[in-house]
Amino acid sequence: MGPHPAVAAIRLAVRRVLHDVLTPAPPADPSAGSHGGPRSPLVLAACSGGADSMALASALAFEAPRLGVRAGGVTVDHGLQEGSDLRAAEVAVRLRALGLDPVEALQVTVGREGGPEAAARDARYAALDEAAERLGAAAVLLGHTRDDQAETVLLGLARGSGTRSLSGMAVASGVGGRYRRPFLGLDRQTARKACMVQSLPVWDDPHNADPAYTRSRVRHEALPVLEKALGKGVVEALARTAQLSRDDADALDSWAVAVEPSVRDDSGALEVAKLYALPAAVRRRVLRRAAIEAGSPAGSLFARHIEEVDRLITGWRGQRAINLPGRVAVRRHGGRLVLRQG
Q1: Where is the tRNA(Ile)-lysidine synthase substrate-binding domain (predicted)?
Q2: Residue from 160, 110, 102, 156 nearest 131 by CA
Q3: Going edge to edge, which strands form the sheet with 179-180?
């Protein structure tokens, strides 16, 4: 008799990712232990202790040794709740009990820039990047589900940030595709069921139900209202929208990269007439790339900034320079756009 369908689903998802991102090492000699020899590649599961990430860690612990891969785990203590250090230590104990090795509990200091959710996310990814580099991990697996993807799409829609924002989370992201999200095709309930049938203890972060956080309101208020009005297929439809939007955004990004050299003059300035001839979606991507190259931080550069720069091309009335984040000024001069950091 095979495993429960939920357990089989999470294991298959992780197995596919391991096959995709790794050249599996030969199966380890049994005498070397369940995690393989010293040359086996290392894959880490990022685990908060919640159902999604505990299911992920359990699936990685099961599948990795069968491919000659070492399986480790990391948990991040954001220091935002009393006793969070004890909680992180407890999660680390659970990961070791699954057979993961190495396991680390990482402590971070959360700043204030961009709001509490963004600041916590930035601190978390910085810690995961550092751990992956230090441990030489081939990949870091994240437990985001199809429900998380649907929430991300709704948040992007509310921001009005365009196709790239609607494309949600990528299956692979980070330096060299370091971060992998095996569960984007699975719903949250599947992960929770997998934990239940395996008797895995899970921790429900109270922040996930705190209405002070935007994503929490989307999860507990907005999505249930949409499902009640439109039916249970809303989450799946939003996730499908993310993939279609990502395909479109990738194609437009590639077009912008290919055309950018042809719209620059010998000095590196952008030629207005050539930009004007481009489709708006491509032109604005060229402008965004140019702004980032000039020194404007990508995370602070929003659609409204690029729209203002675009009006120097499509609605020229002798406007003054446009000031972008990072002290980058954009001026139109003699049929050209000049971007300089002041």
Answers
A1: 270-337
A2: 102
A3: 103-107, 70-77, 42-46, 139-141, 179-180, 172-173
Report whether 48 belongs to an annotated binding site.
yes
Residue 53 marked ligand-binding = yes
Please indicate if the annotation marks 50 as binding a ligand.
yes
- Give the list of residues 6+ apart from residue 308 with CB closer than 8 angstroms, or none: 322
Residue spans of the domains in the chain: they are: 5-230, 264-341
What's the CATH superfamily of 5-230? HUPs (3.40.50.620)
pTM equals 0.83
The residue written with tokens 């991507």 in the block is 285
Does 199 count as an annotated binding residue?
A: no
User: Which structure tokens are listed for 75?
Assistant: 């948990």
Residue 275 structure tokens:
């930009």
Output DSSP code: residue 324.
Answer: E
Q: What is the pLDDT of residue 163?
A: 82
Question: What is the model's pLDDT at position 23?
Answer: 58
Residue numbers in the chain where pLDDT is lower than 70: 22-39, 113-114, 161, 207
Chain centroid to CA 282: how far? Answer: 24
Burial class of residue 82 (count of CB atoms within 10 Å of its CB; 0-12, 13-18, 19+): exposed
Q: Report the candidate in 171, 201, 135 with the shortest Cα–Cα distance to residue 14.
A: 171
Return the CATH number of 264-341, one of 3.40.1350, 3.30.465, 3.40.50, 2.60.40. Answer: 3.30.465
Produce one character per residue of 212-236: b if its CB has 16 or more CB atoms within 10 Å, e if not. Answer: ebebbebbeebbeebeeeeeeebbe
